[in-house]
Amino acid sequence: MSTFYVTTPIYYPNSEPHAGNAYTTIAADVLARYHRLKGNEVCFLTGVDEHAANVYNAAKEVGLSPQAYCDKIAPTFVKLWERLNISHDIFFRTTSDVHKRGAQKFLNVLYNNGDVYKGKYEGYYCLSCEEFFSEKELTDEKICPVHKLPLQWLEEENYFFRLSKYQDRLLAHIHENPDFVYPPARRNELLSFLESGLQDVSISRASLSWGIPFPFDPEHIIYIWIEALSNYITALGYETDSEQYRTFWPADVHMMGKDITRFHALLWPAMLMAADLPLPKHIVGHGWLTKDGEALSKTRGIFIDMDGDITTYGVDAFRYYLLREFSFGNDGDYRPARLHARYNADLANDLGNLLNRVLGLVNKNFEGVPAPTTSGEFDDEIKAMAQATIDQLDAHIKTFAFDAALETIWEFVRRINRYVQQTQVWTLAKPETKPRMGTILYTSLEALRIISVLISPFISDTAEKIQNQIGLTEFDTATAWGGLPVGIKVSRGEPIFPRIDTKKPKQPKAEAKPKKKAEKKTTHLVAFADFQKLDLRVAKILTAESIEGADRLLKLQIDLGTEKRQLVAGIAEHYTPEELVGKQVIVVANLEPATIRNVESQGMVLAGSGDAVVLATLEKEMPVGTQVR
Ligand code: MSP
Fold this sequence. Notes:
Layout: E1 3-11, H1 19-37, E2 41-48, H2 53-61, H3 66-83, E3 90-93, H4 97-112, E4 116-126, E5 131-133, E6 152-161, H5 167-176, E7 181-182, H6 184-195, E8 201-202, E9 204-205, E10 213-214, E11 217-222, H7 224-229, H8 231-234, H9 243-248, E12 253-257, H10 261-274, E13 282-286, E14 289-291, E15 294-295, H11 306-313, H12 315-325, E16 332-333, H13 336-365, H14 379-398, H15 402-423, H16 434-455, H17 460-470, H18 514-522, H19 528-532, E17 536-547, E18 550-559, E19 564-569, H20 577-580, E20 584-588, E21 594-596, E22 599-601, E23 604-605, E24 607-609, E25 613-615
Parallel strand pairs: 1-2, 1-12, 2-3, 7-13, 12-13, 14-16
Antiparallel strand pairs: 4-5, 4-6, 6-8, 9-11, 10-11, 14-15, 17-18, 17-20, 18-19, 20-23, 21-22, 24-25
The structure holds 5'-O-[(L-methionyl)-sulphamoyl]adenosine (MSP).
5'-O-[(L-methionyl)-sulphamoyl]adenosine binds next to strand 1, helix 1, helix 7 and strand 12.
């Protein structure tokens, strides 16, 4: 059995966890669950980083000791992880004795190996980043670029770690191990940072009392980052060289946001090199979640209403949305309306309806799961696609492409929907076609069983519900085709994702903008002069192609007569690229360009959009570029 050790950052418990923390933890959870599914022995570590100055200050503000404050906040993380179905093996606290002793032992090793020395430090420091800023990183205003807070001038006698000594080894390691840092863009950032030269880092603070004392000089406390990074080994039992430590170190994946990849990909490996310990295999720095394009910030009131959205859509929809919507390495703007759309389209419609439909047909026509007795069109294709989906999923998980992983599974879901449609299975209830009906329903249910296994790392509650409804009493993790027992009694099938009314997507309170409502009323009638501002024109579609990772969008090149343009249109579910080429359409030619899924759209195609989407066109062809009024 292989082992798999995955970690999240330990989060600062200066306040309760937010959606950004949840995002990282959900991603790590998917990896942990995926590897358990594959039969690997998994250790999944998460926890809190308690000895931070921001924790100390937050405690002071409410008149609590830092320890009492941490004791109050740390459980709020555990509570959220429970709500989000996080399957961590260890929730670690850095105020634990195991960590304190482990961190001190680690520092002693660095000291004894000659990589820690005493010197003087002065510079600007961000209390939230817990980091000094070098001259070249400073702005005139001396503001932290991440937290937008004033930097503080610190001057003190410090211990230093010889980070510079490891520059060449780090460079070589990153060059020789192209998959050490994910995604590649982050790796390039690190390489250019490394090439500009590393300086030794100060690793002690004499001015602070909240922290772990230096083992060989108790006047100083260990710099938070040195202490925090060591949690990845102290939590396993580094101090006593425990069985768990020997089993799981080095880590397979350190998962985190892009903000702290540098600490993990440079400082941490250098510390491990200095202690002669093996390096983690992958450092994964994902993009940030933003709200209306801005970084989440408690102080600035920019937050995601996780609680409200989970209450409305359920935890699985929340997890699904976060991992399906955004390309993992890039920032992603959290939009409740998109969560709503994904819930109804992908979960309620594609998956929920499919299950319901198939179960309904089994119930109506058979006593339990029917036997596959015939062979017919598409059956082999479905079986082959099940295996291809399993393989592609594995490849995507290996590169931390969670969105592509889910899309791969959903392509299979949609294929089964088409299979049900193509075979018109509901028309086959007559005695002579009933064996065929049985085979098609068996094939569909078996596909759904395999789908339930594949989605289980992402949305485990849903996976279990599907298997329950199919009639399996214990969760079956096998992915080989044919594992579904014939004859088991399927349930009536309560919708696993009851549709949520499209007309009333729940808006979190903070988002309700009364001003907008007023505006809506007055924009009911449009002045003729305003209407005239629109430049509507006849255009011809030259090419159409799908956009990777965006299953509803197509990229169109159009001819406007005077020029050619590129547009993005949300019509992929209603038109194939082939049927669009050559069509005349009406476009808004003077719309501000927008970038949709990294593709620029210079205008908009008009279409009737209700349950179906139908392109607006002219009753007869006209020269391209003709104005439409
Ligand atoms: N305590 C350090 C980490 C030490 S690890 C040895 C720390 N803590 S933190 O509370 O600030 O959490 C940082 C992590 O939270 C980020 O790396 C990221 O994983 C997550 N996120 C915080 N804000 C985020 C977003 N807006 N979006 C996505 N994730 C973000 O740094």
